[in-house]
Design brief:
The chain is an alpha/beta fold. The protein has eleven helices and eight strands. The chain binds erythose-4-phosphate (E4P).
């Protein structure tokens, strides 16, 4: 399973990259705003900075909600850097724009997906990635993991090439369960990725080894 980091924070991206486990980055307008990135030039420059840190795909989201606007914005984003993936909302015009980009060989990520039917449409439109938001479903007492399993089943039935990019990951068990469900990618915060490191028996065992190593008189 590929690991993407879901942030626009350059330090977090750098740290995950240095861990050696990072395969890409996802951003959205809320994450960009959180970093205080304003103005078109700064936003485009920020995407380039992200591309210079990681080797993999970097999702940059359009903010238009009409087909022409999404195509215009997406083309500008895609021309920025070969690692840019055009992130489109799961609405009618977004699906239409997804088909347009897919025919042009430009990578896409259909976002804000909350049902298997929406994921089916994204695959039909040739999306490179589909982003089901599992944390936000959990937030409203709905089983987010079940959605990932349903999409996996549908995509496997027809051998759709669209990759399931499990998004809105909140904690380590989301990551582990996504891997068990056969998600192609997960995108989460640095805290969830680093959380995978933790086990008290690892710490206890290491402390014991360090103590015993002293008796080896290296
Ligand atoms: C996905 O691409 C989104 O950026 C993200 O995962 C949303 O996560 P949130 O529900 O924690 O905001």
């Amino acid at each position: 399973m590929k690991f993407f980091i879901d942030t626009a924070n350059l330090q977090d991206i750098q740290e995950a990259q240095e861990m050696g486990v990072l395969d890409g980055v996802t951003t959205n307008p809320s994450l960009m705003a959180k970093e205080g990135i304003t103005g078109k030039d700064n936003i485009l420059k920020h995407y380039l900075n992200i591309c210079n840190i990681v080797d993999g795909d970097v999702s940059a989201e359009v903010v238009s909600t009409d087909y022409d606007g999404m195509v215009r914005e997406g083309e500008e984003l895609a021309a920025l850097h070969p690692q840019i993936v055009v992130k489109l909302p799961m609405i009618g015009d977004g699906i239409k724009a997804c088909k347009y980009f897919s025919l042009k060989g430009i990578k896409t990520n259909v976002t804000l997906v909350f049902s298997p039917g929406q994921a089916l449409l994204a695959a039909k439109a040739g999306a490179t990635y589909v982003s089901p938001f599992l944390g936000r479903l959990d937030d409203i007492s709905t089983d987010g993991m079940h959605l990932i399993e349903e999409i996996r089943e549908i995509y496997d039935n027809y051998e759709y090439k669209t990759q399931i990019l499990s998004a809105s990951i909140r904690h380590t068990m989301h990551i582990v369960n996504c891997a068990k469900a056969g998600s192609d990618v997960m995108t989460g915060p640095l805290s969830a990725i680093k959380g995978l490191l933790k086990h008290p028996l690892t710490d206890i065992g290491l402390n014991q080894f360090i103590e015993d190593a002293k008796r080896m008189k290296l």
